[in-house]
Design a protein that fits this description.
Elements lengths: L18 H8 L26 H9 L2 H12 L22 E4 L2 E4 L2 E2 L6 H8 L6 H9 L7 H10 L2 H5 L23 E7 L11 E7 L5 E6 L4 H15 L4 E4 L3 H4 L1 H10 L2 E4 L9 H20 L3 H13 L10 H6 L22 H23 L11 E4 L16 E6 L3 E4 L4 E3 L3 E3 L17
Parallel strand pairs: 4-7, 7-8
Antiparallel strand pairs: 1-2, 2-3, 4-5, 5-6, 9-10, 9-13, 10-11, 11-12
Helix pairs in contact: 4-6, 11-12
GO molecular function: nucleic acid binding
Pfam family, one: Integrase_H2C2
GO biological process, one term: DNA integration
Length: 454
């Protein structure tokens, strides 16, 4: 990502001649001291001590509930729950299983501990941070007390270590939110860059793709460089033919977010909409065109023909084919006339003016979006989640990470909530699909969250 704004050539150098790189990769560091446990955050690395006999005796003697239970076990339980003292009603349902063994209150083979030790017992069972299920299983092997499962879940949920770990992190697809389609041609455009790639018969390494959201008209330009100035020049050429749009949708590439690009769009009166990070679905129309371009170049490579020529022929066929949803071709929708083609030459019906009923087109598009939205939400079981400003989350990072690394970012706080994306405190915009809530405030948990791996 950081090198996208540069043009460079790669040259292979054998290892025996590439002395600097070989030295940097293999030479051991001198003088470093091995890191010890003291260098870690003490808040996150506290070893628990076991429960001593004296601690157990003191906690038991000071627990009135256990004393009442012992009396009830010896003298017998009342016939009705309402006749039982309020502090021991939680034991009513299992009263037939309770008994005394060496002054210990037991439920079957498991000990009923004093309430003062409940938290410490849970912490000891959770010492290995094995998650809720295994913590419960470990605790149940020796102990039982009312609300034990709920207390375990609460404590594990608020555990700092577990919040740091990926194993407790989960994301869920947010409900699909259809892209707003403009009501007139050339009003909203999508822009993207395909590459670097090999374009047969050309020095071009990139294909610039520009798509009209209303008509689906596509413009492409094969280029060798994709600096901001190159992109601006291509946009100027396109605008000189079709006019200046109201909105331009792009991803977060450096060419689109530079100050030069922002100045050009501002002077031109164009609203710049950037999609969420690593969320190509937000610009799905352009991504589908990108796929068409790549497939076309693959076919051109196999047939050994010019890549640019193959793209031109593909786009001409695409532009003159009626859209499956609207029934109107991109050419007719943008130009307002029938295209003259080999199938439909001008001496037949090509070139004749056509009145495009925009309202009917929009109705068909909206109905198709509604059906797809319903299908998508049902297939993936999407569920709305209310994210709020100030909430702490971790973001699922794209791609693979190092084996010892995390798949999620460091904790970040939400600063703005939009329809299907959120803006974080660092100014970045992320899709809600990538968010994973954390239940604790990392500012109160030491410095153990580390740096974002991105």
């Amino acid at each position: 990502m950081g090198l996208e704004g540069f043009n460079f050539d790669m040259q292979y150098v054998p290892g025996k001649r590439n002395i600097v790189a070989d030295c940097l990769s293999r030479l051991p560091r001198k003088g470093g001291e091995e890191e010890t446990i003291e260098s870690f955050d003490p808040v996150l690395h506290v070893e628990l001590s076991g429960i001593t006999k004296e601690e157990w005796v003191i906690a038991t003697s000071g627990d009135p509930t256990l004393q009442t239970l012992k009396t009830m076990i010896v003298k017998g339980w009342p016939d009705k729950c309402q006749q039982v003292k309020e502090d021991v009603r939680g034991y009513w349902e299992v009263c037939s299983e309770l008994h005394l063994t060496k002054e210990l209150v037991m439920r079957g083979e498991r000990i009923v501990p004093p309430e003062a030790l409940w938290r410490k017992l849970i912490d000891l069972a959770h010492e290995g941070h094995l998650g809720r299920t295994l913590t419960k299983s470990r605790l149940r092997a020796s102990y039982w007390f009312p609300t034990m499962d709920r207390l375990v879940e609460d404590i594990v949920r608020d555990c700092t270590h577990c919040s740091l770990s990926d194993k407790t992190r989960s994301t869920r697809k947010a409900p699909l939110s259809p892209v707003e389609v403009p009501t007139k041609p050339w009003d909203k455009l999508g822009l993207d860059i395909v590459g670097p790639l090999t374009c047969p018969g050309s020095r071009a390494r990139f294909i610039l793709v520009l798509v009209d959201y209303h008509t689906h008209w596509v413009m492409t330009k094969a280029v060798h460089n994709v600096t901001t100035l190159d992109v601006i020049q291509i946009l100027r050429e396109s605008f000189s033919r079709e006019g200046i749009p109201s909105t331009l949708v792009t991803d977060n590439g450096v060419q689109f977010t530079s100050s030069t690009m922002l100045e050009f769009l501002t002077v031109s009166g164009i609203k710049h909409h950037r999609t969420a990070l690593y969320n190509p679905r937000a610009n799905g129309l352009v991504e589908r065109v990108n796929r068409m371009v790549k497939e076309c170049l693959q076919l051109a490579s196999v047939s050994r023909e010019s890549g640019e020529g193959a793209i031109e022929r593909m786009l001409w066929s695409y532009h003159t084919t009626p859209n499956l949803v609207t029934g109107v071709s991109p050419f007719t929708s943008l130009k307002g006339r029938q295209p003259g083609t080999k199938l439909n030459p001008n001496w037949l019906k090509g070139g004749e003016p056509v009145i495009v009923h925009r309202k009917e087109v929009m109705t068909k598009v909206e109905e198709n979006q509604r059906k797809y939205q319903e299908w998508y939400n049902n297939k993936f079981g999407t569920k709305s989640k209310q994210w709020v400003v100030g909430q702490w989350v971790r973001i699922k990072l794209p791609g693979s990470t190092r084996r010892e690394g995390s798949r999620f970012s460091r904790p970040l706080r939400i600063s703005k909530v939009h329809k299907n994306v959120v803006t974080m405190e660092d100014g970045r915009v992320w899709s809600m699909d990538r968010l994973s809530a954390i239940q604790i405030d990392p500012r109160k948990s030491g410095e153990g969250f580390g740096e974002e791996q991105q």
